[in-house]
């Protein structure tokens, strides 16, 4: 009889119970694939008495996840509690200290403490795996660290927050306002208790920072992810973008530039016909670009019990099989501190503004753009009944700096009313 791999699972919510259920359903399949049985020794959650819909009496129990992490009868500590500090972090540190491998779905913890945890794991000869932390069921960590290991990665981009994509899709397809789509998403339970983690781009920013570390061999640098949420996106922008052949997405982009590592999580326009443009609802998509492979597009469910359990178990099976990789794909000591770069990569921009309806107004706007070195690719003016006219402009590639100069210049023209909307166009 081969030695089983014994798990201690902390956190029995969506991901935790999905994982327990998968292990109960697929014990024989897991054992066959891993070459040894995978068993649950003990569990931990806040409330032992809570009904969770599956039989749990056969397993041990610890009220304190740190105690579970230290149990001598577990090999792997599976952290599915969440939160960047507190019990999740304490328990992971304790597990590594006690000589256990760690599997976690916790992007917030790794975005804040990934380097320190990776160093601790490697010093202790243990591994930390986190496939479920990024894009749920999509095996993107494995693709980057293993499948694309021979490539210099040139760009990572993606839609990695299903709730935001759901809101934007509902605005587009049902004509809902941002507030209406937000309320609908909240009613369906799609948003975190603190919805700003979703709509403010923070949750997706955590994921981008983890992917960037693996892609570019750099230390996780969440502090330098430029974050902008979707709260300022209006139905007018969604409609106007569609009219110009684009979709609005909360898009994460990480790219190594001549000036350093650029990491952005912000609303962007993508061509409606591109894979990212066609992404609907809560689905996630990650696009990976490597010098040899070209472009890889991964698409799938970014959340939910089944997809996250699928990712957690992929990590557990790797450990059972004896596959032991450094946390971020190369030894933690070799990860460089990246020089952060802001707005280093030029791009076309979409501008929407209200122009006073008088002769020469458009010419004044064009002159301000020209003075900042920005040329116009396309322009559209809509019919109107009042004294101002909505005008859309898509520029040729320009830098954010030049664009900000032009936006400031509009103020002095006397023909632009209010603050123009400027959204980057990213070609996916
Ligand atoms: N939900 C998803 O689709 C998804 C997708 C990808 C990644 N993740 C990540 O997976 C992790 C878990 O998310 P989730 O959605 O499963 O969360 P959840 O449903 O809120 O469950 C959290 C679990 O942690 C337990 N818990 C909280 N504080 C604890 C403590 N001090 N000690 C022991 N247990 C404690 C809770 O216990 P009680 O049940 O007793 O209250 C609950 O079982 C998070 O890091 C999240 O970011 C989630």
Textual characterization of the structure:
- The structure is a single chain.
- This protein has 428 residues and is of the alpha/beta class.
- Strands 7, 8, 9, 10, 11, 12, 13, 14, 15 and 16 form a ten-stranded mixed β-sheet that branches.
- The protein is elongated, with a radius of gyration of 24 Å.
- The protein contains 14 helices and 16 strands.
- Helix content is 36%, strand content 25%.
- The longest helix is centred in the N-terminal third of the chain and has 17 residues.
- Helix 7 crosses helix 8.
- The chain binds NADP nicotinamide-adenine-dinucleotide phosphate.
- NADP nicotinamide-adenine-dinucleotide phosphate binds next to helix 1.
Short description:
The protein is of the alpha/beta class and 428 residues long.
Characteristic terms for this protein:
elongated; binds NADP nicotinamide-adenine-dinucleotide phosphate; 14 helices; 428 residues; six-stranded parallel β-sheet
The helix count comes to 14
Residue windows where pLDDT falls under 50 for at least 5 positions: none
Percentage of residues in DSSP E strands: 25-35%
For the residues shown, what is the average pLDDT? 95
Estimated helix fraction? 25-40%
Gyration radius over CA: 24 Å
Main β sheet profile? 10 strands, mixed
Give the N-terminus to C-terminus distance in angstroms: 50 Å
Bound molecules: NADP nicotinamide-adenine-dinucleotide phosphate
